[in-house]
Amino acid sequence: MPKILLIAGDATEDLEFFYPYQRLLEEGYELRIAAPSRKRLQFVVHDFVEDFDTYVERQGHSWPADLALSEVDPTEYAALVLPGGRAPEYLRHDPDFRRVVTHFFDADKPVAHICHAAIALAPLGVLKGRRTSAYPACAPEVELGGGVFVDGSAVVDGKVVSARAWNDQPDWMRAFVEVLRVHAPVGKPAQG
């Protein structure tokens, strides 16, 4: 059964972690959670309040990381999932995050990212020339990273599937599962 790596950190968006995690388990994939260190991560919930110019943040669920990013051998994984939240703000500074994520793009493996994950991808140069969705406030980062921002619920560019935010998740995961069924089907081991 192919393994999928899901990278998270403290302040990962709760819904953007649990929806793909559970949906991909349901499909029969083995998921491993990587974070800057092995620890119990604290997630957050972003919501919208009437007459408030931006979203608000509340404490969400917690979940243990299976391994530290420094322990990840990306050749063991068939695909990558990157949720949003505030975690991408600091994950992008981690050299092992950069090493692991760059491998998936260089090896042309399936990648799903959503919301603020784009701000961690843009500095790596992996969005260059790609059509990419993200939370609309992240459009400048996508464009500065050489990507083409698309305001869509499931933007597919090759094997990369992106979305704006948690309310796009049914479209986002439906499109990602379609990519996985072709490029990393259940029953076939991961290839580095």
TrEMBL record:
Pfam family membership, one: DJ-1_PfpI
MF terms (GO), sorted A to Z: peptidase activity
Alphabetical GO biological process terms: proteolysis
Keywords: Hydrolase, Protease
InterPro entries according to UniProt: C56_PfpI-like, Class_I_gatase-like, DJ-1/PfpI
CDD domains: GATase1_PfpI_1
Membrane spanning stretches: none
Residue ranges the record marks as coiled coil: none
Matching NCBIfam families: PfpI
Family to which the UniProt record says this protein belongs: Belongs to the peptidase C56 family.
UniProt-recorded name of the protein: Protease
Taxonomic source organism: Streptomyces albospinus
